[in-house]
Predict the structure.
Amino acid sequence: MLAAAENLLRLGPGRVLRCAPGAPRTAARRWLAPLRSQGSPRFSSGGTPSGSGPQGPGKVHRVPAEHKPSQFDKKILLWTGRFKAVEDIPPRIPPEMIDAARNKARVKACYIMIGLTIIACFAVIASAKRAVERHESLTSWNLAKKAKWREEAALAAQSKAK
């Protein structure tokens, strides 16, 4: 995890500590020891915390299943076909599995919305054809509505004059 080069001390990916030129690297490591022990615990392949010494770059182990799925996540996992029943879903699953299931559900939802949009378009076309057969149009509706408003305004003016 710690690799020293010249006056730079690499702490990990993207983290570098600059030491004073000519300063011993062991002093910087002594300064970093308390910070490293406060971080997240390292887990060995046995699943027990191991705080003994720095580990090599390829030696960092992760717990393979670290995400506890919510009820919504469980529904997504069932809907996308990852599991057959709610009882089959383990208490902890990898985050990559949740991400893949969410992406698949997102694509399914988009396909459903596309289908519903196409169905709605055909429904509007059919209703417009029926309206044409009845000789209805937006223009005739608008003219009838304005005539009704004028008539109501004339009645209101007449009743006000009395």
In short: The mean pLDDT is 78. The longest helix spans residues 95-133. Residues 3-38 form one domain. The radius of gyration is 35 Å.
